[in-house]
Amino acid sequence: xxxxxLIPLVLPVALLAQAPAPKPKAEAAPAPEATSxxxxxxxxxxxxxxxxEVVGEATDFKVAxxxxxxxxxxxxxxxDSVTVVFSKGETSSKQELKVPHSPxxxxxxxxxxxxxxxxxxxxxxxxxxxxxxxxxxxVEIQ
Length: 142
Fold this sequence. Notes:
Structural class: mainly beta
Keywords: Signal
Strand order of the largest sheet: 4-10-9-6-7
Number of helices: 1
Largest sheet: 5 strands, mixed
Mean pLDDT: 87
Organism: Geothrix rubra
Protein name: DUF2914 domain-containing protein
CATH topology: Immunoglobulin-like
Pfam family, one: DUF2914
InterPro entries: DUF2914
């Protein structure tokens, strides 16, 4: 009977010994510093854009007259807009695109007609004219 009388005293101590130690209070994590990523762009040329990704990416295209080629770009910190410029020698075409947040994926296209074959460059420019990225490609009209 002596053991039975000790159970009420020993049981709480045994249970407390098995309880996990209280977790220390987590210190507030310091606020992350604003990362300043320099403005830049990734540029790819392809035959289409689906689900915001370039399709048929290449640097050499053999296409029929009237085919559209797309300049896909992902931009970081360019400002409120970018300008996509397709150029070949004296020939160029521009399209201004809005950029609501960073990073942002967008695209522009150019329709290639008879006589547009040759070496082309597509550049993505910030609003102030700074080049953010570019891609070179060739087009052969069949």
